[in-house]
Amino acid sequence: MNTVDTVVHLVYLACATCFVLGLHLMNAPATARRGNQLSAAGMATAVAATVVVLARQHRITAVAVVVLLVGVLGGAIAGLVTARTVKMTAMPQLVSLFNAVGGGAAALVALGDAVERSDVPAALPLRTTTTIVLDLFIGGLTFSGSLVASGKLAGKVPGRPVVVAGGRGLVVLLGLSAAAVAALFLTGHGGIAALSGVTIAALAVGVLATLPIGGADMPVVISLLNACTGTAVAMAGFVLGSTVLIIAGALVGAAGAILTKLMADAMNRSITAIVAGGYGTGDEQTGGPATAAHGTVRETTVDDAAVQLAYAGKVVIVPGYGLAAAQAQHEVVALAQALSERGVEVSYGIHPVAGRMPGHMNVLLAEANAPYTQLKDLDEINPEFARTDVVLVVGANDVTNPAARRPGNPVSGMPILDVDKAKSIIVVKRSLGHGYAGIDNELYTDPKTAMLFADAKVGLQALITGLHAYA
Amino acid sequence: MSPLLLADITVFVLALLVGFEVISKVPATLHTPLMSGANAIHGVILVGVMILAATTTTTVGYLLLLIAAAFAAMNVVGGYIVTDRMLAMFHARRESRS
Asked: Is A389 a catalytic residue?
């Protein structure tokens, strides 16, 4: 190992350190942005070091240089434009899309490496063939699975669980056949044809495994697929003998796995149940106008609700999935401002999993310039409900269901916002349809609750108008 | 098993443990940006694509290389920018308080 090689190796190690420190800094809001920038700096350095390696090797063909540059330029521009222009509400599907292309790239690296080595007569060592197969399979299923997940979140693929007849059996069958073909490849038969078979099986598994999972579970699925991409990248590191790929890939694999668990816990769901699928619809508006099982529901009008809000002393707004889906974050902040100007004390009660992804609601309200001081998390806001005159629930469902305090139902034990402790409650919602847990919300039949049936955006706009007209 | 492979496996396992440890306690507020940030880190596959480019000489290989390069670059560039955009909003929010 000469000096330059040693330096390059140390530089890669420094880059890996940047990734670890960067992720660590992202644990707290105050340092998160710096953490991401440190991680990006590490990435730029790793790419620069690789340029030095390639330049010194003199092995790369001119065509490969051009192909590489064209590809990188095209991809970078596509990434830049979409990342800059994406609406904050569309964030989850974009993260999923970036995850898809990452997994795809990892799979293609394995395939490309196998193609280039296929004309070499000497048998590949088992460590290479094994990791090629693993990389291809994990990367392939991540690619197709993330695309389906992204489509579901964007509404291009139905968010409801799509149950393919015998789908689960088919997944197992495809997995087994992929393993059989892989075994063939590992014993030195089949070559590229066998690898193509593994790739096709992986792509099919990704689609079939993701389709039956409900839209609301998608964030957890994306996080899981994120962990898969990390693992695929680590496998690519084994194939190419690149330590920085192994470290970064393993890091993301482990971090993604933990994050998946944290998210699933926050949603009161087990990862196994999520992957099994067939649960929840994701879009509560598709739940249909089901009638409440017991008790009666009181309906209110925009004017009554506006007056009630205008003459309240303290209002807490509880935004949920419906608000994010209707992209009504600007309307809700405008309403809060109008109320504040009238001297009403306004704050937001934000459940950890409100929005389309854990933590998403904070991003959305921050985007709409909601003052920081008004954003309260679960522990901060719950003691305040008892002295709140009106709670305005916008598109939130299960996170307000008092049934969570009792055992024996799907939301049991889930931390909820104690909305029912307030003096009165107004719920803006499209229908009495079920939320993610698929059960009736007892809050809606509470005598203190009035329902305002409207789309979050339209309803809030009407409330703002009503506020100016009547109060 | 070669010493090289053993060393690689060691690094892999230790990096897994570091990954578990580093994300142990993160507030739900940061779940989305963190996921996006981790997503950007696996864009390091771009380095892998570049290493692959050094040994690519066939037409099929070039085709695979082109797609892989585009995918990896999109992952890394888009991933970091979108994460930064999200985190910048958290920053602005803190400023508005002061």
From this structure: no
The values of phi and psi at residue A319, to 5°, are -85, 145
Residue B8 structure tokens: 């690689």
Predicted complex ipTM exceeds 0.90: yes
**Could you give the CA distance from residue A14 to residue A36 in angstroms, rounded to a whole number?**
15
Interchain CB contact of A94 with B (< 8 Å): yes
**Cα of A206 to nearest chain B Cα, Å:** 18
* Among A42, A47, A246, CA closest to B46: A47
> Which residues of chain A are under the pLDDT cut of 70?
1, 120-122, 216, 277-295, 356, 436-437, 470-471
Specify the DSSP element, H or E, that contains A317.
Answer: strand A314-319
Residue B94 pLDDT: 43
CB spacing of B35 vs A223 below 8 angstroms: yes
Q: Are B39 and A93 in contact (CB under 8 A)?
A: no
Q: Which of A71, A463, A407 is nearest to B52 (CA)?
A: A71
Secondary structure, 3-state, A323-349: HHHCCCHHHHHHHHHHHHHCCCEEEEE
Q: Which of A33, A34, A153, A414 to mutate to test the interface with B (most CBs of B within 10 A)?
A: A33
The answer for residues whose C-beta is within 8 angstroms of residue A121's C-beta and 6 or more apart is none
- Under DSSP, the state recorded for A217 is G
- pLDDT value of position A290: 41
Beta carbons within 10 angstroms of residue A105's beta carbon: 34
Q: Identify all chain A residues contacting B78, using CB atoms and an 8 Å cutoff.
A: 78-80, 82-83, 94, 98
